[in-house]
């Protein structure tokens, strides 16, 4: 039988492909860079140079306990010396791989682009980017880089075309999946022939909208497969906002949660173990004298707010960095527990929509938390003030809702811990200089085990008007009780009205019931904040109102998960179900429950799992 017989062709092709794959699968690590224009340079020890040094220390944190796969940071106040930066690690990389890649990238980019204000470095495991112009949430496809596997698919034109068709088809599916994924990535494999698979991975920066992610990936997708790397068995394309890759071998490795090193668990509680419980955060400790000097001895003029367990002060560290200082009330047994809870949680969490913990102080009776300074105060400062509401146009409100949703999704599903916030409300949403939302105040948060779906407590903590009925009445809480609070927030953002202060002529219910009443009457525009009534995005606002009402449904099982919520917010191709009636609270403050609606402070209750009228303040 001749060697060119079809019976020998498949095994021979498989051997040839294997020989081709081996050298390229194990080749040197890829890296490339872009140094921007020669017109945008900085000098040594200039303001931008110092800001850039601090920025690189923030986005390549070799000291952090954990690290997210995406983050962006801003350092500085006055353009053009503000340093904007972000990193994106490949979706399959563990935290340690991501951290090591960023440490290398920050050193190499400084060598490659020693005086450039704008620079990008791409490598196998991560992308690092910075500039003196803000580029967050902006889709950019230039400059781009591509690299092709040196192996050829086949010398036959028909075989090449069939391969390109398989790859483009796979990429089409990946683009759709990634643009609808909260983390903006997708991977899969497809069969090229009966024995050979092709593997693909696409990824966008997480600050892009779903539609921008889709456009970014499609811009160069066909050219990458058919033109840049036509006829090759693999290739990659990298842009500032997205990247794609395909190979004949499985170049990625997605891990189970057991592969990721776990942060140490806190020791069992004991009166003598306060410091032991946070020993893993020793590197974050700041001495009391430094904090005292930063806040001018906690001067009243530095006070910017009052939380449930103490005051919040603005401060400036010796290096000029602004900070927010949360000083817990002395002698508060509750505050001590919430303090340890917040340190343990925030030291492990990193996400652009969560407020960042910079340090803490535990000296004598002082229990102090130090956060990044967020200049625009909290959402309620703007939302519920008739003179400031106008600063929140629909685009801004839409961005805030999306940021809160992404932050909550991270807490519920995407961090290594499953965390229930339990006190999500407008005053706990901080706004940075670009009005991006940052969730704060984790003093009441609870960690769930991987397979745990709900828990029960005799100690009800939270804010009336934001608590789900099953939690307020029976002490049951879950991710869905956070979803309820999120729904209340969405309806407050749309209406500009506070739920627990709602009053409308001729209507006796709360804000949720008023929203339902207008929805049922098919007059949703009556519910919308008058300053938004003439918005060209009326249909989008109504869609968000629908999502808010789905989140506040009385039956827990009918509320969407935060994963579904984020998909609904990002993709208009998803049809929304009709909501059911929300729970009805007869009065703004239940009998026996003391609440101050003007400040919406958090409350602590004792509950005997009886109706809410028998809840007693402790």
Automatic annotation (TrEMBL):
Report which reactions are catalysed by this protein.
L-threonyl-[protein] + ATP = O-phospho-L-threonyl-[protein] + ADP + H(+); L-seryl-[protein] + ATP = O-phospho-L-seryl-[protein] + ADP + H(+)
Q: Name one GO cellular component term.
A: plasma membrane
Q: Which residues form the Gnk2-homologous domain?
A: 30-135, 141-251
Predominantly, its location class is membrane
Q: Which N-terminal stretch is annotated as signal sequence?
A: 1-27
Q: Does the keyword tRNA processing apply?
A: no
UniProt-listed InterPro entries: GNK2, GNK2_sf, Kinase-like_dom_sf, Prot_kinase_dom, Protein_kinase_ATP_BS, Ser-Thr/Tyr_kinase_cat_dom, Ser/Thr_kinase_AS
Q: Which GO terms describe its biological process?
A: response to stress
Answer yes or no on keyword Phosphoprotein: yes
User: Subcellular localization, per the record?
Assistant: Membrane
Top-level taxon of origin: Eukaryota
A Pfam family annotated for this chain is PK_Tyr_Ser-Thr
The membrane topology of this protein is: Single-pass membrane protein
Q: Sorted alphabetically, which keywords does the UniProt record give?
A: ATP-binding, Glycoprotein, Kinase, Membrane, Nucleotide-binding, Phosphoprotein, Receptor, Repeat, Serine/threonine-protein kinase, Signal, Transferase, Transmembrane, Transmembrane helix
Q: Which molecular function GO terms apply here?
A: ATP binding; protein serine/threonine kinase activity
Which sites bind ATP? 326
> This protein is called what?
Uncharacterized protein
């Amino acid at each position: 039988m001749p060697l060119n017989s079809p019976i020998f062709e498949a095994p021979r092709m498989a051997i040839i492909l294997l020989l081709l794959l081996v050298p390229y699968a194990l080749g040197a690590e890829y890296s490339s860079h872009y140094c921007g224009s020669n017109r945008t340079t900085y000098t040594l020890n200039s303001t931008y140079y110092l800001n850039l040094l601090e920025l690189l220390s923030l986005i390549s944190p070799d000291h952090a306990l954990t690290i997210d796969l995406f983050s962006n940071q801003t350092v500085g106040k006055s353009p053009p010396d503000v340093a904007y930066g972000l990193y994106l690690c490949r979706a399959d990389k563990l935290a340690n791989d991501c951290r090591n890649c960023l440490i290398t990238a920050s050193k190499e980019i400084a060598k490659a682009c020693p005086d450039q204000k704008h620079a990008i470095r791409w490598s196998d495991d991560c992308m690092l980017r910075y500039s003196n112009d803000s580029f967050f949430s902006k889709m950019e496809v230039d400059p781009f880089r591509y690299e092709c596997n040196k192996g050829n698919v086949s010398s036959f034109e028909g075989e090449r075309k069939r391969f390109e068709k398989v790859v483009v088809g796979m990429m089409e599916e990946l683009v759709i999946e990634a643009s609808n994924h909260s983390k903006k990535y997708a991977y899969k494999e497809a069969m090229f022939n009966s024995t050979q698979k092709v593997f693909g991975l696409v990824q966008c920066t997480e600050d892009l909208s779903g539609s921008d992610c889709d456009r970014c990936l499609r811009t160069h997708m066909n050219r990458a497969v058919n033109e840049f790397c036509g006829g090759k068995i693999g290739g990659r394309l990298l842009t500032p906002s997205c990247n794609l890759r395909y190979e004949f071998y499985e170049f990625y490795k997605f891990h189970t949660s057991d592969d990721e090193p776990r942060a140490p668990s806190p020791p069992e509680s004991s009166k003598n173990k306060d410091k032991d419980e946070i020993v893993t955060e020793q590197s974050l400790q700041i001495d009391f004298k430094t904090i005292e000097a930063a806040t001018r001895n906690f001067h009243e003029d530095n006070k910017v707010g009052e939380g449930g367990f103490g005051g919040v002060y603005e401060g400036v560290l010796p290096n000029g960095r602004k900070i927010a200082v949360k000083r817990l009330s002395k002698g508060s047994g509750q505050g001590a527990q919430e303090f340890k809870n917040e340190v343990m949680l925030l030291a492990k969490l990193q996400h652009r929509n969560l407020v960042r913990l910079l340090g803490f102080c535990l000296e004598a009776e002082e229990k102090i938390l130090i956060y990044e300074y967020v200049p625009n105060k909290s959402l309620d400062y703007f939302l519920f003030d008739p003179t400031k509401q106008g600063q929140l146009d629909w685009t801004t409100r839409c961005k805030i809702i999306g940021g809160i949703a992404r932050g909550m999704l991270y807490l519920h599903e995407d961090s290594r811990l499953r965390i229930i916030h339990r006190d999500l409300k407008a005053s706990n949403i901080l706004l940075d200089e670009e009005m991006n939302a940052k969730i704060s105040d984790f003093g009441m948060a609870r960690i769930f085990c991987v397979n745990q779906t709900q828990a029960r407590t005799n100690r009800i903590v939270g804010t009336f008007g934001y608590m789900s009925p099953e939690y307020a009445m029976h002490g049951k809480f879950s991710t869905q009780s956070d979803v309820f609070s999120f729904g209340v927030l969405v309806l407050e953002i749309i209406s500009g009205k506070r739920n627990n202060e709602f009053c409308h002529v001729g209507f006796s219910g709360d804000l949720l019931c008023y929203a339902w009443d207008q929805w049922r009457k098919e007059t949703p525009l009556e519910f919308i904040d008058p300053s938004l009534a003439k918005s060209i995005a009326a249909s989008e606002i109504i869609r968000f109102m629908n999502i808010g009402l789905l989140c506040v449904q009385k039956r827990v099982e009918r509320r969407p998960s935060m994963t579904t919520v984020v998909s609904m917010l990002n993709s208009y191709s998803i049809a929304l179900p009709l909501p059911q009636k929300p729970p009805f609270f007869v009065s703004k403050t239940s009998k026996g429950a003391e609440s101050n609606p003007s400040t919406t402070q958090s409350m602590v209750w004792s509950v005997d799992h009886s109706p809410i009228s028998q809840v007693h303040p402790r």
